[in-house]
Structures are given as C-alpha cells and as structure tokens.
Here is the input.
Amino acid sequence: MDVKAALFYIFSAVLLFAAFRVITARNPVHAALYLVLAFFQAAMVWMLLKAEFLAIVLVLVYVGAVMVLFLFVVMMLDINLDGIRQGFWRHFPLAATVGALIALEMAAVLMGGFGGGEPPRVVVVLGQAAGQVSNTRDLGVMLYTQYLYPLEVASVILLVAIIAAIALTLRERKDSKAISSSEQVRVRARDRVQVLKMETTLPAVVAAAGTDATAPANPEKKA
Here is the structure.
C-alpha cells in the first residue's frame, strides 16, 4: 500500500465518522461542526484525485459561506430540540431502509463505473501546451460546450428555489413602517384631514361678588 492509498483510507474513515456524528449529535452546533469536518475530508479526497478546483470550491462555498451562515442561524434562533427529537425511534426503521437503499444504488452505480469502458474524451484547448493542463480551464470549457444545456437547466432550478425561499419567508410584519405607494395615490383629503368648526371668541367668566376675578375657581384650602 502506497502513501496515496493510505491517505485515502484515513480521509475516508474520518469522513464516515464525521457524517455519522452529524446525524447523531444532540447539539445542532456540534452537528454543524462535524459537517464542516466532513467537508474538509471530502476536499482532501478531491485533492488526491487531482481535482483541486472542486476541492477549493467545496471549502470556499460550503465551509466558508453556507456553514458559517447555518451556524449563525442556529445560534441566534435558540432551537428547542425536545420537540424535534420526538418520534425519532418510531421513524428510524423507515429512515434506515431508505438509507440502505440509497447506499446500494450508489454502490451499484460506482462499481459499474469502475468496470472499464471507453476512455474519457480529452478536450484540447487551442494555444495550450500538452504539459500545461489546467483542471479549472478544462472544466469551464466542458461546462460551456458539452454540458451547456444541463448547466442552464440547473441554473433555472436554482433561480426558482431562491424565489420560492424568498416567497415562503416573506411575511407581513406588524412593526414595519413601510408605506404602500398605491395607497398614497388613492388617498383623499377628507380621509386624512378633518376640519372642526370652533368659535373664534369665548365669553368671559364673570367673577362672583367678594372674590378675586384672577383667583382660580377652586383654590386650595390652607391648613
């Protein structure tokens, strides 16, 4: 066994352990940290396969953006886990069956892919020497030439998902001070301003005999 194979088994073992702890950890923050560890191990496996672009994208996008945002949301919401974990063991047999079925399907696809077949086609880029192969450049050429339509379909699906997420989380807040422009246009003066008719002068109060006119009506009694 060479060093590359040994590193592959080490990274794979840590990846499986971290993935198992993601679904078994009681604290959501610990589960998120184990997921970050799983992403790092998957990136190391990509590096062993000489796919450094995918490894860097996995670390930058998922670890650097998605997981940091997830950790902030989890720690700010203060989620009550007692209600979430109710009925876990009741649904565990069904979940284990579905997980085993997915694992068998992935194993069948992966084992069939290693059985041999036609060698992969190599994209030749004009003006590039044979020894200067760039995975990032070759991946971009294949995405925008051979896999252009699947890329456009995936982008449309992501756009629909973003719009749906915004629509689901958009709720009317009672403490919001936003003003509707359409209501401002339809408003009328009598709806906003009320004119009250008041007399311009008031009759003077005649003071009683023997009292000071400037004194208040109900003076306080002195002790």
In short: The radius of gyration is 36 Å.
